[in-house]
# Entry
Amino acid sequence: MDRKLNIVLVSNLYSPNVIGGAEILVSFLAETLAAQQHKVTVISTMGPSKETIHRSCINGVDIIRFFPKNLYWLYQKENPNIIKRAAWHVVDAWNYSTVKPFRQLLMSIKPDIIHTHNIDGFSPVIWSESKKLGLPVIHTAHDYHYLCPRSTLLKRSSEICTNPSIICQIYRKWYASQMANIDCFSSPSQFLLDIYKQSGVDFKRSTIVRNGVIAEKIVDAVVDCSQEKNRINLLYLGQLSEHKGVSTLLRAFERISPTQRYILNIAGKGPLEDEINEIAKTNPYIKYHGFISGEKKKELIKCSDALVIPSEWYENAPISVLEAYHHGVPVISSNIGGLPELVQHNENGLLFEMGQADSFASQLMRMADPALVKQLKIGALKSGQHYTAKQMTEDYLRLYSELI
# Structure
């Protein structure tokens, strides 16, 4: 696009306030747009403060934060109880404290288009206010938040919910009615988009825009960073909880003979953190690194033979998969959610039956074949070339142009 646009991105959290991949992707998009000389403003939230609105600029992106009054701020460290969380969702269904500051910001910025991402905290009132000002609205869904208060489609037992309660059905109908204010609903995966459509949401327009990450340089050779020869380095990177399939991972790893010299590196935090730490103390083939980020995370990925994602919930399009591909690291994942759209079996990774430790172990043991490993790494490198922030930005710019 030759014309330089004035774009507002809305994300409930933004760097340095990062909880998940959505905030990272928004920063990739914002900074890539700004580097192409588009005017980019991110509207985000902050905690309660004497300062009504906080303004800053990071890497050419104007960032404006304010606090939509509610029982707590999403980024606060304490974990609110279930009653407080439920009350928060009630307020967030239509948060009137968002209306005035959001409208004033849009009137002062005068954007060409509004692109919303995670809006919990702001509430869907921002879609309505944008339409009142005659602005086109595109929304990118990163999870199942408008179908499920937990955003995961999981029951408290961590099982996938297939029969939502009456309260959840009312919740869905409310958000479905508010999504009528969206001109285009975008999803990083076909799976997530299909789930929304199957739930009865009627979109004016919907599309798929694949996620992309910023890479300093996509490596052009497969490098073995192993400290010792004949080691097969596996990496789990993420939340340590049941729905992420961590227990299945441990059972599968038990089935692999130690003589194969597999090493399982685990990085992350969560409810199973203490259990993982204790297992790592007694098993020399399992190394627990705690929560890692930045250069340490990058080095751990680069020196892995495979990233393992044993999820037992409907993953959408994890950033970790794309990061692995950029370093020529294949992915071994469960065959659920949006993962099979990213992981092509025997090409850039391997798929196994979700929740089946035997199926998982059989795919892990295939990594003992050097020819297969090399084939998968080359496939991962090729895939990495498609999932870039630049490509993602170009796709969104085409969409912006059509909507304006």
In short: The two ends are 12 Å apart (CA to CA).
